[in-house]
Inverse folding.
């Protein structure tokens, strides 16, 4: 069974159980400045998990490309990746725990043929915030999982979400598969994570976590199931690692053909990171020093560095990316469309990294000259952080000068840095979709009206370059060369207010990308992975690809007022606007 069949089987299974198949969201979330990347299928669905009605119904499923960098240092083992596809299904206040668990169990065993005797389940152990999940455990027992293959674990293990600091979350029940049946008795998913792979997680999203850390029961009890496509593949294909499946074997072979040294870990890092970089670049991100661009840069440079460890000289990432794109071409035609741009961006960044490395070597010479017999951990970490030198490389170069490196000091500096970047990552989640309130929904609909009005007044060259919405105001960045005149600003404002007065209905339709394009919908066409999109139409005035949510009628918006217009960069303008009462 290849990856294509596995995706199909999953969606067929959920369709049979009454789910609507929805399109995947872009890898860089729209209208959500609180996160860098889509990290789970539930992420774009937060407003609907909190109770907004989803236009496709209460049972949803899809395959969502995701990017997570929190596991980046584990990439290289048999089953961790940065860029992966999540098979997901959701109940928005519809079915409950028992149906959810049975549905995932029958997918894994009846559809995929996994051996029920190798499955383990974990359930929430209970604490002051929520009771022990005996209900989930009873379902697993009824399905034939004996208590010996079940664990009750605390919140640190069996609780998922919120995707940040506030929002929907709840106890979960994880599903593990024993990859080495007949291994040492007494081992469990907690004691040996390399042996037991987590293949799925049913989250019972029935709490809303507030900013003060307190949990409040949600009126709507949801299910959020996620399964890692790439982790199921080796199991159904009978191979011991993700890298040996049809999605990865061709990439590994291409790297091996260039390598002069063999190093499984390095091979895997290059394969994962190049594939991830291709996905990020296809989403329109270019390497840089902050936010998404920084992640792109880090993936590319880490891949280049491990390439050098394999003895590869000269630029090679574009060649590897081409193969990675081929493995995903059928499922994600957008990658093929972006192929030339991806390759060009990789070549450019690799060349830039080559120059940085040369400077790093000079810095190392200086550090060595200032030390006696040991290079300080902080100096080694600086080389790692600023120039991308792995500890091994620094150790090797230091050894040539008869010097050792303080590896403990390096590890300490490294851990302190990780702590800081985790805190930074968590802080990002504040606000954004998880705090979606009626005010932000109204401003979101107003943003669509503004976008369409700008195109009517200024011309069709106006395209969205960014959007940021808080409960107080909207902020919209768009392509346009000059400052807007007062007359233009007044025309745009008036045009939006006319549409509000007309009380136009807001209607959501699912369609193929091509149909949306033909219908004249605007939106980020080039950067989508999915061929299926949702289009929000506002009467005859606006049609835009978007994940929602929106108000039902424009009269709900009140009065629209532009408060500021300014430049963001060459060719990009920014408008801030608010909604309020008519003057
Ligand atoms: N949101 C959960 C996860 O990412 C289940 O989909 O694991």
């Amino acid at each position: 069974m290849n990856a294509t069949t596995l995706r199909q089987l999953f969606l067929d299974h959920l369709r049979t159980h009454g789910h609507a198949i929805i399109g995947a969201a872009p890898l860089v979330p729209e209208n959500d400045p609180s996160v860098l990347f889509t990290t789970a299928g539930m992420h774009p669905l937060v407003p609907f998990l909190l109770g907004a009605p989803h236009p496709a119904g209460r049972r949803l499923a899809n395959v969502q490309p995701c990017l997570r960098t929190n596991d980046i240092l584990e990439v290289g083992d048999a089953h961790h990746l940065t860029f992966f596809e999540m098979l997901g299904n959701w109940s928005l206040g519809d079915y409950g725990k028992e149906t959810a668990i049975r549905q995932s169990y029958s997918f894994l065993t009846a559809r995929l043929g996994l051996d029920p005797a190798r499955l383990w389940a974990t359930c929430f152990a209970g604490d002051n915030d929520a009771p022990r999940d005996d209900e989930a455990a009873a379902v697993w027992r009824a399905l034939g999982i004996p208590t010996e293959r079940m664990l009750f674990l605390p919140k640190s293990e069996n609780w998922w979400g919120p995707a940040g600091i506030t929002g929907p979350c709840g106890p979960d029940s994880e599903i593990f598969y024993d990859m080495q049946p007949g291994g040492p008795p007494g081992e469990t998913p907690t004691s040996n994570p390399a042996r037991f792979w987590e293949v799925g997680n049913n989250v019972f999203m029935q709490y809303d976590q507030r900013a003060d850390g307190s949990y409040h029961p949600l009126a709507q009890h949801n299910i959020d199931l996620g399964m890692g496509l790439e982790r199921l593949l080796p199991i159904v294909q009978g191979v011991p690692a993700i890298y040996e499946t049809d999605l990865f074997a061709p990439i590994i072979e291409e790297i091996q053909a260039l390598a002069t040294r063999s190093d499984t870990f390095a091979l895997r890092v290059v394969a994962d990171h190049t594939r991830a970089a291709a996905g990020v670049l296809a989403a329109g991100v270019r390497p840089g020093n902050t936010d998404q661009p920084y992640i792109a840069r880090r993936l590319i440079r880490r891949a280049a560095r491990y390439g050098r460890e394999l003895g590869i000289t000269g630029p090679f990432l574009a060649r590897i990316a081409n193969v990675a794109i081929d493995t995903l071409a059928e499922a994600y035609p957008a990658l093929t469309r972006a192929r030339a741009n991806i390759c060009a961006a990789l070549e450019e960044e690799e060349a830039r990294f080559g120059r940085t490395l040369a400077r790093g070597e000079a810095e190392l010479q200086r550090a060595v000259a200032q030390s006696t017999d040991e290079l300080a951990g902080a100096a080694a970490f600086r080389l790692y952080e600023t120039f991308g030198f792995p500890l091994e490389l620094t150790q090797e170069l230091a050894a040539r000068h008869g010097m050792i490196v303080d590896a403990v000091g390096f590890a300490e500096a490294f851990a302190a840095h990780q702590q800081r970047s985790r805190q930074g990552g968590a802080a990002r989640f504040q606000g954004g979709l998880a705090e979606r309130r009626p005010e932000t929904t109204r401003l979101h609909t107003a943003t669509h009206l503004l976008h369409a009005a700008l195109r009517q007044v200024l011309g069709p060259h106006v395209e969205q370059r960014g959007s940021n919405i808080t409960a107080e105001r909207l902020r919209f960045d768009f392509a346009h060369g000059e400052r807007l005149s007062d007359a233009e600003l007044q025309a745009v404002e008036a045009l939006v207010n006319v549409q509000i007065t007309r009380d136009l209905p807001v209607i959501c339709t699912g369609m193929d990308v091509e149909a949306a394009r033909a219908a004249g919908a605007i939106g980020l066409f080039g950067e989508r992975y999915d061929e299926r999109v949702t289009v929000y139409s506002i009467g005859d005035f606006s049609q835009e690809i978007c994940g929602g949510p929106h108000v039902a009628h424009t009269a709900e918006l009140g009065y629209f007022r532009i408060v500021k217009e300014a430049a963001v960069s060459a060719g990009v303008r920014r408008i801030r606007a608010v909604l309020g009462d008519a003057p």
